Amino acid sequence: MGAACCEHDHTHDNGRGGAPDPRFRRVLWAALAINATMFVVEIGAGLAAGSVSLQADALDFLGDAGNYAISLFVLGMAISYRARAAFFKGATMGVLGLYVLGATSYHALAGTLPSAVAMGSVGFVALTANLAVFAMLWRFRAGDSNMRSVWLCTRNDVIGNIAVLLAAFGVFGSAAAWPDLIVAAIMAVLGVQGAIAVMRHARDDLNLAKAPLAAE
Known about the structure:
This protein is mainly alpha-helical. It has one domain (20-138, 145-215): Alpha-lytic protease prodomain-like, CATH 1.20.1510. It contains six helices and no strands. The longest helix is centred in the C-terminal third of the chain and has 38 residues, at 178-215.
């Protein structure tokens, strides 16, 4: 899942929040709106089409929307607040990843054949949406760690969308569900691994924030 990359590196953070770029804030609001809308569209389409990879991608949109919302809330705050927000994001990502793994297992046992046409159509719309966010964030790709992580997250989302499209072609060409299941399982595993990494980084950041207080 693309949200797996949305971890923030605070290695060089001094523990104090800086003044946020108003342009970056506006872009985050736009990205939040796009991702929230695409979650509603894609989760409905994924359930209707019986596609687990679409559901996984939809949950990725939900995770990203939450990531942007929390990033907006803690923008400019001290590292301790951002670390707690990151830990919450990581825990949410883990729950979503486990859900997708469970749904993948269920559809594998049930022998559900997803609709390749629906997968391709909705997957293309999702790719277009993420490309739009990618273009908006392009100017911030070389900013601070928070800006870079959000941009890299969106870049990986584009890769995930392409994987869903490849799964749609695979389902269409093979008349079997395995391409959809494989892509969904990979996205879910990446989501769980990313969640663990995010929570570990958040824990380290919290310890870093507490260190000056302990020294005093």
